[in-house]
Amino acid sequence: MKKVTLFAALFFASVSAFAQNWTLDKAHSNLAFTVTHMMLSEVDGKFQDFDVKMTSAKPDFTDAQIDLTADVNSIYTNQEKRDGHLKSGDFFDAAKYPTLAFKSKSISKVSGNKYKLMGDLTMHGVTKPVTLDAVITGPVTNPQNKKTLAGFKVSGEVKRADFTLGSIPAAVVSDEITIRATGELVKAN
């Protein structure tokens, strides 16, 4: 039994030794959302302050561990009054729940560079499992600074009601929230 335990410990230590850390290139990244207002028009918003960290040993990223955090107080919809309302207790309650978070559980290749990303999304103090679509490009080497980059496009839909995010009727603000995240990750040296 001791040999098996020692072997397992050495195996997992060697696998994690090859894992690469990746950080977000904030200048080339965006975390956005869309809701429908009055069943008529789409309203876009974004989180201006967010971060992503990833660890992966496989070149196709199927073993990736992804952690995203966003500052709810950085919400921006191009309307100061609406931004304040979204931060209030009527929606995100940023004073009580200042952070939105996503932690991946698995990522599986669908075909080519298309993947399914599964994980836990936490908003408004509620954590729910979500499945998102992802397109991963790269890795490539930046010809200017020689750093290794990977590109990600992640999209999906969640329901406001699942996260108790506002009691405004769906006829006024849709229950469905479309999430879009795009960005570049830089491999640490």
Explain what this protein looks like in three dimensions.
By secondary structure, this protein is mainly β. It has helices at 2-17, 80-87; strands at 20-37, 41-47, 50-56, 65-71, 75-76, 99-111, 114-123, 126-141, 148-159, 176-187. The chain has an eight-stranded antiparallel barrel with strand order 1-3-4-6-7-8-9-10. The two termini are 38 Å apart. The chain has a single domain, classed as Beta Barrel (Lipocalin).
Properties at a glance:
single chain; 189 residues; mainly beta; Lipocalin; eight-stranded antiparallel beta barrel; 2 helices; elongated
Average of pLDDT:
91
**DSSP helical segment count:** 2
Sheet-strand content, in percent, reads over 45%
Low-confidence stretches: 6-16
- At CATH level 2, the architecture is Beta Barrel
Shape: elongated
Helix content: 10-25%
Provide the succession of SSEs.
Answer: HEEEEEHEEEEE
Helix-strand blueprint:
Elements: H1 2-17, E1 20-37, E2 41-47, E3 50-56, E4 65-71, E5 75-76, H2 80-87, E6 99-111, E7 114-123, E8 126-141, E9 148-159, E10 176-187
Antiparallel strand pairs: 1-2, 1-3, 1-10, 2-5, 3-4, 4-6, 6-7, 7-8, 8-9, 9-10
In a nutshell, what does this entry contain?
The protein has 189 residues and is mostly beta strands. The chain is 13% helix and 55% strand.
